[in-house]
Amino acid sequence: MGALEDMLLEIKDTSELMVDLAYSSLLYNNRDIAEEVYQLDSRMRELENEIQEMAIQNATEDKDIKKALLIIRLAQSVGEISNAALKIADVVRMDVPPHPVIQLALRETDVIITAVTVGESSDLDGATLGKVRLATNTGMFVIAIRRGRRYIYGPDQHTTMMAGDTLYARGPEDGEQYLKDLAAGREHFDPKDLKL
Amino acid sequence: MVDYEDRDEEKENLTVRELLTEIKDISEVIVDLAYAALLFDSQEIGAEVHHLGARMDTLNHEIKIRMMLASRTTQDAVQLSGLLQVAEGAAAISAAAGDIVGLLDLNPKGSPIVSLVLKEAEEKIRLLTLSDRSDMGGKSLEDLSVETETGMRIIAIKRGIRWIYDPEETERLKEGDVLVVRGTEDGFERLRRFTSGAEKWPVYPEED
Predict the structure, then answer these.
(1) Which domain holds residue A16?
(2) Got the DSSP string for B79-107?
(3) Interface touch B20/A73, C-beta < 8 Å
(4) What is the tens place of the pLDDT at every residue in A138-196?
(5) Which candidate, B140, B146, B137, B139, places its Cα nearest to that of B188?
């Protein structure tokens, strides 16, 4: 894949992470997470500009105006999603805590967000997200990990989880309990589920 | 213009909590559907995005009115304005989804870059057909808990010429259904084993 494709991929993935983080920051009234949405937004702006420039550059060479337009407009729409995430995260930065109805509403959605702590007897301790195929096995997709005072945002398959970590994850309501049990060490993976 | 008669009859029953829940739900499924419309070059899916967008506008309007009626003190007003901001953010997401669907006019099929990007994303949108050899047919989404089992979310089902968007838990799958799913590559491969009939859907002993 070329640089342009890579950048488009990055803004798409980033915009989704921003929305998930924005809703998480609200649910947990967490300013650190809200702050990360701001950080990601500046990266989005940079990428959007680069994409626009490169798309126009390409069009001067291959004369494919429609393709350039398509790419520029797609990047712009994805940028709007990240703006919206910013708006949502911004509520956490107000002087008063978010209205309690917001948290109640977020708990009732089709896709919920949860925070679980990894215990010492958990299968997750010392495992990478890819090794235990966490998203596939639980339906819960980890969007951030808190380790002590540090956060890992948008972890990938190679990210290792450790006892004491707090995992922020998104997924269906019925996946939440299984993830909690796994993290607490009350449940363990079936070895056949770990085979790729 | 909003029809107030309609508003009084239909939505007075929804609480603010319910309104906001639905607003958030739409903001998520609408983006997946918009990308799916592009990926599969489907005006039909695009029409559903516009339909959901209109619903989003109605809900946003309703929640604004409720907030104005509910505000008694400055503290109230500040907190409620935060709630409104969340609703507006969600509405902005749905507007962006509408813009993405608008790209269909630019013939995205002719520029493979878009589908390439959507297929390579961390969470991809893919199609799966339910084989007659699969034992998922006849089971409801509630019975299956597809997302918990595989990490894949079913965002739409095509059954014959009919579409079912954001299917309800009570929906039963039928052989031949085309599922539009969203999730990781690994989850997709797992789900495909079940939809193709290569593997039986796991059944767990009832607890309690």
Answers:
(1) 3-93
(2) HHHHHHHHHHHHHHHHHHHHHHHHGGGG-
(3) no
(4) 999 999 999 999 999 999 999 999 999 999 999 999 899 999 999 999 999 988 888 76
(5) B146
CA A11 to chain centre: 12
- A42–chain B Cβ distance below 8 A for any pair: no
Between the CA of residue B78 and those of A47, A94, A101, B177, what are the distances in Å? Answer: 34, 9, 14, 48
Whether this model's pTM surpasses 0.80? yes
- A173's tokens: 């309501």
Residues of chain B positioned with their CB less than 8 A from the CB of A98: 79, 82-83, 86
Q: Which amino acid is at B46?
A: G
b/e map of A141-165 (b: 16 or more CB within 10 Å)?
bbbbbbeeeebbbbbeeeebbeeeb
Rounded Cα–Cα distance for residues B46 and B208 (Å) = 44
Query: Which structure tokens are listed for B60?
Result: 């946003």
**What three-state secondary structure class fits B182?**
strand
CATH number for position A133 = 3.30.70.1450
Task: Round to whole Å and give the CA distance between B95 and B92.
Answer: 5
Answer whether A101 sits within 8 Å of B16, measured CB to CB.
Answer: yes
Same-domain pairing of A159 and A189: yes
Give per-residue pLDDT as tens, B81-132: 999 999 999 999 999 999 999 999 988 777 788 888 888 888 999 999 999 9
User: Is A138 close to B148, i.e. CB distance below 8 A?
Assistant: yes
**Tell me: the pLDDT tens digits for A51-109?**
999 999 999 999 989 899 999 999 999 999 999 999 999 999 888 889 999 999 999 99
- Give burial (CB, 10 Å; 0-12/13-18/19+) of A65: exposed
d(Cα B71, Cα B63) in Å, to the nearest integer?
Answer: 12
What are A149-161's pLDDT values in tens digits?
999 999 999 999 9
d(CA B132, CA B130): 7
In a domain, A100, yes or no: no
Residue A13 maps to a domain: yes
Question: Which residues contact residue B208 at a Cβ distance below 8 angstroms, ignoring those fewer than 6 apart?
Answer: none
Chain B 36-75, CB below 8 Å of chain A: which residues? Answer: 75
B178-183 sheet: strands from edge to edge = B124-129, B178-183, B153-159, B162-165
